[in-house]
Structures are given as structure tokens and as C-alpha cells.
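ugh finaly. both done.
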Amino acid sequence: MNWVQKLISIDAPEHASLHSASLSLRSSFPWWAAGLVLVAVGLGVSWLYARESGRFGRVRRLIMTVLRGASIALLLLLLLRPVLIAEYVGERPRGVALLLDNSQSMTQRDRRLTPQDRIRVAIAEDLVAADTPVTDNLSLGSIPEGTLRDPDRASVVRAVLTNARLQLADGLAGRGPLRTYLFGQRLRNATGEAGIDRTEMSATDHVLAAFKADESRTALADAIHDLLLGKEGDLPAAIVVMTDGLDNASKMPLNEVAQECARLQVPLHMYGVGSAEGGVLLIKDIGIPDTLFYDDSLVVPVRWRSQGLKKGTVEATLALGGQVVARREVPVREGQDLRAELTFTPRKGRDQEEKKELIASIKLIGNDLFTDTLKRPVRLVDRRVRVLYIENSPRWEYKFLQSTLLRDRRVDANFLLVNGDTEALQAGPPFLPAFPARDRLFGFDLVILGDVAAEYLGTEKMTWLRDFVNEGGGLVTIAGRQHLPATYGTTPLTEVLPVEFLPVKFAADAETRPQPYVPVLSEVGQRRDMLALADSGPESLRIWKGLPGLYWHYPVTKLRAGAVALLEHPTLKMGAQAMPLLASHFYGKGQVLFLATDETWRWRYNVGDRYFTRFWGQVIYELGLPHLLGNARRVQLALEHGEAIYGHSSSVYARVFDAEFRPLKEERLRARLEYLDAHAGEDATRTIMLEAIPGQPGDYRALLAHDVPGRFELKLDSPEAASLLYRVDLPPQHELEPAGMAEETLRQAATLSGGNFYHEEDLHRLAEQIAPAGARFSQRQEVLLWNPLALLLFVGLVTAEWIVRKFSNLS
């Protein structure tokens, strides 16, 4: 029967039998016309043979007539394009699908410190028998020599697939045709990868050649679901998945896909690669100033990330100078920005001023694998910032700022109210009855000058203030509707201010209702710690955008050379630039701020003193501490947005002054970037060139790639030593984020689907857990009968007639 099928060009499918066969004519010539032609030809052939004059009997004459008619009939039939339609039915074995996780998370190295985890590596590497039991009483002494300590997950997969004792690929192929796939962001056939030379390569070699573990996202659930859609034929008998279970790109939950597998009777067999004892506990930042005051109660927020830790308690500690000063325990939970506030009070030692190292630490209690530390150098002082606040009359800004200064234990504040009650001013500290003498003025660290008339100060006192700033004192000027800066146009303080202005008179207009506005942080302002209203850059920006609106400001005309705007008006312009509301520059060794509004007290609405106090406290410390400590910083370093994210380049900025505190004019500065988490043999230092920013004297910028996660320190040696510590963090759910194998998730999905979960010690029985399954199928074939059998039949009929004619002595 097979030779007949070959003659008529039928390719019978394997595991199937013929169910039915039929004939169909595909010619446009009608069959009835062919029948008429056949009848006419048959009558003609009969008439011709009846008139043959040869001597032969009727039987022979009839045979020749039939043979001639049959050959002509066969020819007519072939001209009608006959097609044989054969339908086969049968049952073929369903295949086994093997899915390999090809994402970057498979390059992670798990910490395998327990005997159980290490013996699993030995099983994968074929150093012990594949059925070696993994029990709780194992010891490290039972681990074979040569077992890799902490192999990456992809290496474990390769070892398993090439394990001579496991013979996993052959075992799976014995349960049904084996189809192997890779998945990361999408599912694809592993043996269909381009660029792989498959000459003399086994099927396993094909797969391992394509297995790179380099995809940036993982869609585990979506990959299984795509396989269930059956785009490549029948559903598999089972799906075997080798993965760490981390999924950060799927649109469908894994449990829903597992339930669909159960409905379709396609069990999932999950091999969990890696160790479940994994996760991340990482300090992001410590909210601590550079200078601490003795006997001042500090609340230090410690921010960290936690992922992959399921239970337990996190202990956060602060150590100052090697001595633990604060400790707090919090329940472990997952999050990208967790925080705990630790409180301590630095106690005075023998020295009035000390430099120490503050170390913040976090750890998972009972598990030393999860711990992290972050260090900050701090200076402790026993002196308070001496502030002189001079105001014309007790406006709202003065009232709230006065109470803030008096409550701050780090500040020694004195107040001079020009139009205040005489009896109160004579009552003694904190009030001054008159402007202090020059030597006493120079004993202050910071002067806050309110809406005071220039005539009150006079040329001499304004000259003192100018000299005070020039020698390193800080000056904050708060604009007012009456005198400052309108009356200071040609005074000794004019050149001290960071802005240029014209005199403006503000008339009360009861019929005009001003529109509120919310100040906007400038690009420079976003990098200044002085303006941070939260511990993280994004949170601080969010708070600034949500502050209550202000209504009034003093318009300025120009920034002085070297001055920068820190806060700007959201809509009004100063020429082509936004109208500055808070501007800063250095005059001599001292820093000067010009605040163009007296309404920061409005920020207290609904939140009390939280943002108002933080803002003014940071302003006072930044401008007053350099004079208190006797060394103003000539180099200020800041990171764009205050944080660094792996894979997202950002800039580092430097504001640099020369020895006379004038903006530096060099075209570029050389800095060193040190990778503090570099391993032995890695290049830990690279040179960074800071380029001058056009149009911003003293400002420099360099682009940082952030191509390696971990801790870094940027160091600048000239014109003054300065450094910036920062950490490059992985974005949420990144492939390289340390996290353990998701055993619970994989085990639950396998159970829901009707399959099993496997560690290395279970793989020897994986193949036998898969039950072979068949799939019913039908296949239809259409064969045009222009084939060797038809030709043979035609030639046979013609030859037979010719032979009979020869025996009848006919030509």
C-alpha cells in the first residue's frame, strides 16, 4: 500500500491512518461536455474497428475497442485536472516546552553560606550524585572540594543542562518532542537565534549558545501565557521553567496564568534557580548637617531601601566617634524609601570643637548577611550662631521669625526694633536699645536686615555692615514695602546686595486683589541644601510646589555679576530671565541673601512651623556657620536632583571661588571620582573634568554616567579640598537589584497548575513527573493526479492495444 501512495505522491503523516478519500475535478471544462466527447469518441472507435478488414474475431475486436476507448477516456479525465482528496486522522505525542530565564537577574551571585545551598551547587556541577538528599543536618564539611562558592544563576543553569548524571534534556525529550525557548521581555525559540553556528552542535549546545542572560526586563507570566496561545502547534504536555522567579514586566499575574495552565491541563514544573535567602537592605541617606552643637537634641532621619526580606526586625543605629548614641528597632517591610528617626544629644567632651565620624548602620537582627553602613564627617561645636535681627517695625515676618530664633538652642539671637516700644528695648537681652558698636557688631555671625530706612543706619553703620560681610559675616536682607531696598540706591550697602533695583513705592489699593503665586526653585536652588524642605530631592520639590501662595514681592532689575537666583517668580520676568525672589552671592568672604518678599510666614498655613522653621534654620546655619567656624567654604559640590540612579546619567555641579571669594574663572577643573565599593583588581579611580558653565561665573558641571551601582566619592583638590559622597542606586525592580529567588511565588504557581517545584536535589526525578500525552489531529491532503501512476496507466493502455493489434496483423 505504501508504494501505491508514493506513486500517486501522497505523503501519509506519522501516527495516522486514512479516514476517507474522494475525487474532485478542478478544470473549467464541464464534465458533461467531456462525457459527450467520450461517447462520440467511443462510437467512432467502435465504427472504425467494425470496418477493419483484417481476419480476427469479435472478442479481439472488442478488446481493442475497449483499450482505445479507455486510453482516450483517461486522457480526457486528466484534462479535467482530477484531484484526489485524502483525509487522515490519528494521535501524535505532545511536546515538552523548556523555558530558560534570559534576563540580567540571572547574572546575580547568591550568597550561599548554608550547607544546604552549597550542596545544591555541588549537585548542579555534578560533584555529587544527582539524588543526594539535602537535609537540615548537613554540615559544611560535607561540601566537596572545588564547589564554587557563590556562582551566578546562569552558570548554575548551564551546569544543570550539561550534567552528565542528570541527562535532563534527554529525559525531557523522552516524554515528548522537546522545544526550548528563551524569555526576557518576550518569548522566543532558543534554537532559532540568529548568528549561531550550529555545525556539529547538539540541541543542548544550541540552547546554551543562545542563553546570554542579558535582557533588561523579565516577563515570566507573559512568556508562559504566550506559549499557551498555541502559535507553534499543539499545547505542550508540560512546561518546564528554569528561573529565579523575579518578574518585573508581565501584564498578567503569574497565578492567573497558572490557573489557565490547569484549565488546559498543561502543568508547570518550576525549577527555582538561586537561593531564597536573598534581598537588599541599603541605606540611602542620613539627614544630618555638617556641624552639630553640643547639648542640642538632634532628630536624625535614616532613609533606606528594603526588598526581598519577608520577616524579622531591622535595627538602625547611630555611632558618633565610635560610640553608639542612638538605636531603634522597626519591623521589616518592603519599600524604596523607608525611614526611621533616631534621636540623640551630643555631649561635650574636653574640647570645645571636635571633628568626628557619624556612622549610620542598619541590619536584619539575627542575620548578618543583611547589613549596611553610611558614614558622614561632622564637626561638633560648643558655640551658638550669634544672630542680630534689625527690623523697622514688628511686621508678620518679624513676629514669626523672632519666635523661631528664640526657640532654636543653636542660635543666640538679639533683636533691634527701630520703632519698637522704648521700655521693652531697654529691658535687656534679647533686645538691643541701639545699633551696636563696630567691635560688638563684628562679634555676630549673621545679620538679618529688615525693612529699615537707610537714613536710620547712615553711611557709617552701612560701611560697618559692608566690612562685616567682607570679613566673612553673613547678611540676609528681607525686602519691605517702605524702605528696603528702595532707599538704598546709592549707599555703601548697594554693592553688597546680589541684585540691582530701582526705587518703587507701593500704594495701598483696597480695590485691587493680588493674585497668589508659588515660588519656583531655580536650577541652582534645587541643588542647594539650604533650600531642601525634605530629606530627598523629589520630595522636597513636591513640597515646594504645594506651599501656600505668596502675594507680594519687590521687583528687581538685574542680578549682579556672580550672583545666582535661588527662588524665582513663576510668571514674571526680569528682561529675558525669571524674576528672582531669593538671590545669593559672595561679597568678600561673606555670603549675602536678598529675599524679595516678607511673606514666608504664610508657609505656616495648615502645617505650623514645619517648613518655615526648616527654611530659616538652614538659611541661618549656612550663612552664619562659616563666620562662627572661621572658614567659609570656597567650593560647593552638589548632585543633580540630589540622587543618582543606575543607567540614568546626570550632572554634578560645583560652585567655586578664588582666595578673594570671587567666582573662579578657570575654564575647567580636574577632579577624581573614587568607586568605594570596587572589588580587588577593579579600577577604582577615574578622572573627571568639570567644565565652566557659560554665562555663570564660578559654576562648573560634569556629566556622570552612573554605569555602576554602589558608593562613590568625588574629590576636588584645587583651589580647595572638597568632596562629595553619593550612592548610585538601582531603580525600583531592576534586574540587578539584589533579591533572592522567589521560591514561594514559583511553588504556588506550580501547585495551582498541577505541576511541581524543584530544587537541584529534585531535578533527577523531574522528567518522570511528566506524563506523556497525545493530541488528536486530522490532516487533509490534495493530490493532483498528474503523477507517475496516471502516466503508467496511460502508457499501459496504449501498449496493450498495440500488442493486440500486432497479434491481429494490423499496422
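ok and the 2nd:
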Amino acid sequence: MLKHNLLLIYRNFKRFKSTFFINLIGLSTGLACALLIYLWVSDELQVDQFHEKRDRLYQVMEHRVQGDEINTFTSTYGLLGKALSEEMPEVEYAASFSWEHHFTFSVGEKNIRSSGRFADADFFKIFTYPLIHGAPGHVLTGKSNIVISENLALSLFGTTDNVIGRTIEADHHEEYQVSGIYKSIPENATLRFDFVMTYSKFLETRPWFEHIDNTAPETCILLKPGVDEHAFNEKIADYIKKKSNNQVTHRTMFIKPYSEKYLYGKYENGALVGGRVTYVKLFSLIAVFILVIACINFMNLSTAKASRRIKEVGIKKAVGASRRELLIQYVGESVFMTFLSLLLAILMVDLALPQFNDITGKQLDLTVTPGLLAATITIALVTGLLAGSYPAIYLSGFNTASVLKNMLNTSPGEQWARKGLVVFQFSLSVIFIVAVIVVYRQIAFVQAMNLGYSRDGIITFDRDGSLWDQQRLETFINEAEKLPGVLHASSITHNMTGHNSGTYGVEWPGKNPDDRTEFENVAVNYGMIETLGIELVEGRTFSPAFSADSAKIIFNEAAIDYMGLKDPIGKVIKLWGYNMEIIGVAKNFHFQSLHEKVNPLFFRLNPGHTYIMAIKLDQQALQETLAGLESLYKRINPGFLFNFKFLDEAYQAQYAAEHRVAMLSKYFAGLAVLISCLGLFGLAAFTAERRSKEIGIRKVLGASEFGIIYLLSTDFTKIVGVSIIVALPLSYIITRSWLAGFAFKISLEWWYFAGAGAAAVAIAWLTVGTQAFRAARVSPAECLKDE
């Protein structure tokens, strides 16, 4: 029986070559898309899942009431890790750790620039970063201890053996002793670092983080087995309030599973609303839809060809074949076709993976694992069953007598079902087209939007080594501004591409005592506002021509509006208890992602607390200017590497997820349209074949080629028209929902939807018109002759 069925499958594939190739291409393309998305989704779901104690590992977070909003942060007060481990019996281990720091490490003549963290002693007891050398509980006990990665050890020493106890010089002025070496961090880790230094060293130079009102470090804890997460959250909710003797009442503390941080990290007004999991769900849905589109092609073409196979069905039934046997045959034919398509799909995936990895920023591969093998077989089997179920039921249900008398009539219900499937296909295609247009327009808007400051031509790099000497810093800035091609040079606390340093320590006349709004705190050097090209609405910037500018302050418009100050220039406010005179008001500019509104911000003159150098370049002679800057940098700051970044690249990095969505949407939309067109092409070809005698008679009676083309295209145009009517309202709802995640966004213009509809009609006309034109060109004699 199996051999007989395989022979029939082969003969049917050979008999209906065009249908076979259309189904092969459609199914293989759909399966390739599904496999690519499966690889991506699997990788996303594995992020931060490698920690052995992930079921007890939690991130400490805070909800903070700021004005009329509740904002959520991962930053905590500096001594929280130590406090929780000492005061909470439910906590097995706790560790606070700093943001990313950069150092130039030296061993002999080698200088390596690396990034890492300062962390509490229990850091390696909480996280699974296996140590090659050293004990987790002891590697971060000494103030001058440093734990380095396997890669950094190889770069500095050429080996990982006999490295413990050896000395590394940091920034050419301070020595650290290697106390441990850990294995290379997996690619699916969100917390990445080349080294870890002791937290006490961090606090030694930043004692203000020991105060509960100052936040920046993060804290993670490991709960003891059996501790209830919800009960613990209730216990620590008012921890900050109690710890500050009711002085800090706007911060509510809670814990969240660390393994969920990556996918579920977006909060709005204190409520979890998703995160990257939105894109996981979105692309999983896209994979399903593309497979469904491919399956619809198979269903439509199989049922459309039914008239060519009815005698086969009739004879089989006449000789005793049951409907069950026919169902098995036709479903088997579909499953066989799907697994044949799977082989081609795997080849497609293998060829497409390098490009796919470039787009997604991942390192996916087709290494055969039990999970991948099971998923691949499952996807193919489900696809085959889905694609073959309706044709099998349809073909096996014919009446024997009617079939053998050639009295097969297609019912209106069957015709409507086929048209409905085509409507579904093209509706999805139109939605994809609209989505691509909207995503690309929003990304273009983000890239081109006037942020209120100039990021073009600005390079930034860390203030290292001798540049921490104030006199050397001033010398470097002055010498840099003399170089041809350098327009401005200065220094700042951070690179203006996100929230970095906030404070609640601003007081103004009429302030509500319960108001705990956070102001972005930006320390700058002279000339920094000019370097960024920030426009002042009124007042002046900091200048050496004026004395005591360190007691002056510049707010943005959002801050002035929030404080309700009228005629603010010359008014005195308090910052951390010190009087500060307002000398300027900066026009609002976007220092955070466009997902966020413009928040209150102030500039203060404090060159000693600026950490990043910023230089504005004339882009006409960029390479020569960079070479001159590198030479100056090495002369004033010998032994350090001139590692710079362009500010516009840092800005674009904020929208990496959206960029990837835009690129993937473009490709998947194109493939969805292609698969839909393949089905439409096959149906048009079959329609032309079925109506060949009608076409011949019409041509004999004088019908023109254009008339024949119009005749064959009309029905399909109506179907596509219905698809557009169904798709456009849905696409509006979907795209409006996506745009809601941006505080600043494009408007949904009518032409986005009209353009998508017109594109769908044009694509359908081109697809159907090709077949209609071929049919119209056939001579009447050829059409009217009997087969």
C-alpha cells in the first residue's frame, strides 16, 4: 500500500508540474521563515536562563512616584545589598554592583582597554559565572582584588595558569591583584563584563552612594529555598521609607525574577506592560501567518485541481477504497510534499543565516539538537496536516456515481470557501505592507527628528589617565580647539542618550513638600552647551568671563514649566541645600529615547565631575582631524588608547530593536506577498485552463485580447478589493498600538493605507494579468479542440 501511494504521489507531482513547483516554493519558503523565526525566538527565550539558581535569583527594583507618574527603575541605593543580606533572614545572598566602567589594564608593554563592574563579595555566589581559578566567596574580599575573564587573562598573560596573585596596573597608576578567573560569559547573558573589582573600592571614591537618597548601583538577591516571592515583596515594599525614618516616602521596593528581566522589562505608570516579549510574540505570530498563507495555497490549488482527479477518486471508491483510506492517501501526499519542502527550507535557512544574524545581532546556527530536531519535525508535520486536511476531506467526499458520470458540480459554498482563503491571504499581505510602511516612516522620523541638540560630527571618549588632572584637561581642550577641523571641545558627565544621573535634591519657591520629582543632573565643562548646539530660550551659558559660575544653574524648559517659575532668570533655587542662581533656560531637547517625554533637567558647571570628553568636528576633513586628535591625545595622555565613538551612533543604538523589527518586517512582508502571489498565480492559471473553451468561443465571436484579460482579471480584482477592505482597519489598529510605545511619533497618514491597497492591487494585477495575457494570446482553434 505504501509503495502504491508513493507511486501515485510521484505520478500526480509529475502530472501537475506547475502546481507541484508552486506548492514546493510556497511551502519551503514558509517553512524557512518559520525555522528562522524559531531559531530567533528560541535564542530570545534562553537569555539569562543559564544561571543555575535562576528560580531563586531576583533583581531588586523600585517604583518611584514622580509628579503625577510612577516610574520604575533598576537602580538602588548603594548599600542595599549589604543591608538586605544582614537584615532579611529570607535572603541567602545579596550583592550590589555598579554600572559599566572602563579601564586601561597594563602588564608589561601590553595595554588592553576593558569594561567591567564593581561588585559585592557575594556576586559570584549569586550568578553562575563559573570560576576557573578562585573560590566564589573569597575572590572579592580584598580591596585591591580583581577577577578577570578567561579572554582578558589570555590577552594580558597569554595563559590562564599561574595567573592568580599576579599584578595588573589599571590606568597606569593603581595596581590590582588577580584573585580569580571566570569562564567566558555566554552570548545569551545580559550582564556582560571583562572584569569585576571590589565594591568597597567603588564606594571609596563615591561615598555619596552610601546615602539612601542617592541611587545608581543595581542589586540582586538569592532567596532561600521555599521563600514566597509575593510575601517577600509585601515585606520590603516600605523598606526605603522605614530605612529613611519616613524621610523618603515616594519609593516602593519590589523584586522581580532576574530570568524575566530581559523579556518583561517595560513598565508604564508602575504596571508591567511587556518588553521584548512583545517582539517574540509578534514574530511567532508572523511565522504562523506565513505558514498559514503557504498552506492556503496548497489547499486552494489542490481543491481547484479536483476536477482533474475525480476519476481517480471514483475508480478507487468503485473498487472498494474507503473514505478513510482516501483521507490517509491525500493527507500523506500533503505531508510528503511538506517534508520535501522542508529539505529545501533547510537549505534556504543555511544560506540566509549569515544575513539573518547581521540583522538580528545574534550568532544563530543550524547545529542539530534534540530540541531543534523535534521542533522542525513538528512544524513540518503540523504544516502538512493543516495543508492537506481540507483537500483530503474535499476529494474523499465525492459521490462515486456522480464522479464516474462526470457530473461533478462545484457548490457555491466551495467557491466561497476558496475565495475566502484568498481574501485571508491577501488581507495578511496588506497588513504586512502597511506595517512595513509605518515602521520605516517612524524609524526615519526618529533618525531625522530635530532633537534640540546637534549629534552630527560629535565624538565622545572616556576621560582617562592624566586627563583627570584639571590642568591637563584644560590643556587638552585648548590644544584640541586649535586643531584644524575641530569646532568645539569640552567634557560632560554622560553622552546624552538616556537617563544617567538623577536627583531629587532640587527645591524652589512654592514647592510641595511631598513632591519627589527627579531632575536629570548634568555636570558640564565650559563650552559644552555650545559643543552640543543647545539653544537657550533666555539667559546665558557658563563662561570664564563670569566669576562664581559654579554657583549658577541652567534648567531646560520642562523643568521651568514643572516648577512653575515665571521670569526665572536671576531667581535662586536650592540644589542639595546650596543656593544656585538660574542664569539660563535651555530649549527642550531629547536626552532620552523618543519613547519617553522630555523630563526636567539642569546643567551645572563642575568640570571635575565630568567623565566623558566631547569634541565637535568639521566633517569635511574628518580623517585628518581624527589623526590630529589621536596624536594630541597620545602626547598628553601617554599609555592610553584613543577609543572614541560617534554620538549619532550611540543615539541610533537606542533604537536597535526598532531597526531590527523594520528590517525583519520588510523581508517577511515581502515573502508573505510572494507566497500569496504564487497561490494567486496558480489559481489564475487553472482558471484560464478551465475556461479555455469559453475564451475560444468569445474570441471567435470577436472578443479582443484586452476583453479577455479584463474578463479573467475581474473576479480576482474583486477578491483583492475585499481583502483590502478587511485589512485596512485591522492594520490601522495594529500600527496605532505599536506607535503608542513612542512619546514622539508620526501621524498615521491616509496614504500609508491607500498606498498599501494600491500596491496589493498592482501586485495582484501583475500576477493574474500575466496568466490572463497568455490565455488571451492562445488561438481560438487551440482553445476549442478536445483534449
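summary for the 2nd one i guess: The first helix runs from residue 2 to 15.
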